[in-house]
């Protein structure tokens, strides 16, 4: 199992990580960050396997993956 930590202040909600996650662990958050973007959140942590595809796709380096 893996675990994803998302820096919500860096995330601009581009959704590239959501499309990269083949297990459906990520989704857009209901809240907004200080810049007015809807950041991504780890909605289903039990589905995360720590593959790091989301972190690789993130253009803002807002995702850290732990295994």
Overall description:
This protein is 15% helix and 21% strand. The protein is α+β, with helices and mostly antiparallel strands and 67 residues long. The chain has a two-stranded antiparallel sheet with strand order 1-4. A two-stranded antiparallel ribbon has the order 2-3.
The proportion of residues in beta strands is 15-25%
Radius of gyration: 11 Å
Strand line-up of the largest beta sheet: 1-4
Q: Please count the beta strands (DSSP E, at least 2 residues each).
A: 4
Domain count: the total is 1
Instruction: List the helices and strands in order.
Output: EHEEHE
The top level CATH class name: Alpha Beta
Notable characteristics:
single chain; alpha+beta; Alpha-Beta Plaits; two-stranded antiparallel sheet; two-stranded antiparallel ribbon; 2 helices; 4 strands
Summarize the structure.
The protein has 67 residues and is of the alpha+beta class. The protein is built from 2 helices and 4 strands.
Chain-wise SSE layout:
Elements: E1 3-6, H1 16-20, E2 26-28, E3 40-42, H2 53-57, E4 63-66
Antiparallel strand pairs: 1-4, 2-3
